[in-house]
């Protein structure tokens, strides 16, 4: 896949895809979307990069040593935020009673921990998708 | 709007039958991507933009790439 048009169009379009993914993630609690679609869009941008520039450059852009930390770290972050509810005397994933900042309805910084766990889910889904695709490409080259 | 809905559903069913009938697996994957894209528009018409967004990203994007990666490892034609 060594095509000049594909490479240049991908280079132009990938920042907008990633910006759209981050928008979907951060507006997950006030508009359609959320962690899973936004993370899938973020992962798809790196998959497009790997398809346009080859597996070597894709691995340089997102090596497995980083994506494994992102995967595990995001879900540990989710669980730690959930644990705050337990340590303040309520159940797992207690939002308002555990003392999270609620804010006003309709702005981005509101809703307690919902933006934070949506960000964690987005990072988890995106890095899982990248890891899955890179693993399949690697196995393809061995045979 | 009713006419658009009927056209989309007829095209959806045609795509679903064509995926099953096609012997060439790469063509079947591309038809399946078209199926997912029509399904995303239908989710939007059903007033579920959340599911439409997920369907367009997962169904038409990532699933197609995964299937093509699998086909490039195995053979292209169905036995």
Structure write-up:
The complex is a heterodimer of chains A (143) and B (79). Chain A has 143 residues and is mostly helical. Chain A has one domain (4-142). Chain A has five helices and no strands. Chain B is mostly helical. Chain B has one domain (2-73). In chain B, helix 1 (2-21) packs antiparallel against helix 2. Classes of the chains: A mainly alpha (143), B mainly alpha (79). The interface between A and B is medium-sized, with 20 and 14 residues.
Q: What is the string of helix and strand elements of chain B?
A: HHH
How many domain units of chain A?
A: 1
- What sort of overall outline of chain A do the alpha carbons produce when their principal axes are compared? elongated
Radius of gyration of chain B (Å)? 14 Å
The residue ranges of chain B in which pLDDT falls below 50 over 5 or more consecutive positions are none
Q: Categorize the overall geometry of chain B.
A: flat
Q: How confident is the prediction overall: mean pLDDT of chain B? A: 91
Average pLDDT rating of chain A: 88
Structural class of chain A: mainly alpha
Number of helices of chain B: 3
Count of DSSP strands of chain A: 0
Rg estimate of chain A, integer Å = 18 Å
Largest interface: A-B, 20 and 14 residues
Overall helicity of chain A: over 70%
Measured by DSSP, the beta-strand proportion of chain A falls in under 5%
Q: For the terminal residues of chain B, how far apart are their CA atoms?
A: 42 Å
Give the SSE string of chain A: HHHHH
The amount of helix of chain B comes to: over 70%
Given helix and strand content, the structural type of chain B is: mainly alpha
Query: Spans of chain A with pLDDT under 50 lasting ≥5 residues?
Result: none
